[in-house]
Amino acid sequence: MDATLPTSAQDVNASPDASGALPLFESLIAECRRSEPIPVAVCWPCSGVSLAGATEAAEAGLILPLLVGSEPQIRGVAAQAGLNLAPYSVIDANSEEEAAAESARLCRTGQAKALMKGSIHTDLLMRFVVQKESGLRTSRRVSHVFIMEAPLYAHTLLITDAAVNIYPTLEEKVDIVQNAIDLAHLLGNQEPKVAILSAVETVNPKIVSTLDASALCKMADRGQITGAVLDGPLAFDTAVSEEAALVKHLKSPVAGKADIVIVPDLESGNMLAKQLEYLGGARLAGIVLGAKVPIILTSRADSAESRVASCAVACLLAKQSPRTELQLSENL
């Protein structure tokens, strides 16, 4: 693969809009470059794609990778791919399990400010993340968010959960929603509009997602979910299209203007995100929230741009800068 990196935010496949503002991902990268890169534990980067993902983000000035895995394999992959590992630390581990445990320890002790998935399977990595004593659990449910920039949508769209929680319960969806709201706040949107997705806009006892949607909205009314305007159930067309909502005579503060969409399950969310990416030309980044540190889950099919953007989101989360919120608000 081509490991060539942009040397500035503007080089990442985008240019300023008419107002002079950069798109969100470029703004994130530019903002992160204003301060020191964060140390990131990269768990088992024993393939060309996963190792290049870490070094690309490092060369972009976002992270300082701590490469945790089989040192002979890592150095062999680097030699084959023509990657220079001299600037980075390599921490030897005999197995994927040992690498996952050590990566979690580095994050738990503060030596790493974020965790990045290498060529290890997601289920194995997350097993060590969620362990009670030696993992990275908090009081929140861990969940994944895709940050999407779709050409035909006016602003950034967050999709959750499409990578971690397979069939979340209502209780789990509360944390999934709140995690996404908190991320939107950090990205500058202080009152995001949250659409709870289903196939229809009415509550139907035979469709569990409509019952969950109505319960989540009432929980927001009661202050159990805060910081956003919720509505649901909403079909995807009415969530993102004011015209569709008008045709259906749907009155909603969220319809046609959703900033966050909550999907019923992992399958529907994953398909939605991939459809927007591959058929709709959307750009995306992904991050896992709810742990003690942000977790970057990279895919073998991710572009260099997507990997770097995901690291930029992790960098922003790790630094938790109020100044960043103000500077990025114009992009949402």
Describe the structure using short key phrases.
2 domains; five-stranded parallel β-sheet; Isopropylmalate Dehydrogenase; alpha/beta; 332 residues; Rossmann fold; elongated; disordered C terminus; disordered N terminus; 11 strands; six-stranded mixed β-sheet
Quick one: CATH class of the largest domain? Alpha Beta
The tally of domains stands at 2
Estimate the mean pLDDT confidence: 89
Strand portion: 15-25%
Low-confidence stretches: 1-15, 321-331
Overall shape: it is elongated
Ends apart, CA distance between termini: 32 Å
| Main beta sheet strand tally, sense and closure | 6 strands, mixed
Describe the protein.
- By secondary structure, this protein is an alpha/beta fold.
- It folds into two domains: 20-137 and 291-332, Rossmann fold, CATH 3.40.50.10950; 140-288, Isopropylmalate Dehydrogenase (3-Layer(aba) Sandwich).
- It contains twelve helices and eleven strands.
- The strands form two sheets. A six-stranded mixed beta sheet has the order 8-7-9-6-5-10, sandwiched between helices. Strands 3-2-1-4-11 form a five-stranded parallel beta sheet, sandwiched between helices.
- The chain starts with 23 loop residues before the first helix and ends with a helix.
How would you concisely characterize the structure shown here?
With 332 residues, the chain is of the alpha/beta class. It has helices at 24-32, 48-59, 71-81, 96-108, 122-129, 170-186, 208-221, 236-240, 242-247, 266-278, 304-319, 322-328; strands spanning 38-43, 63-69, 89-92, 114-117, 143-149, 157-160, 193-197, 229-234, 260-262, 283-289, 295-296.
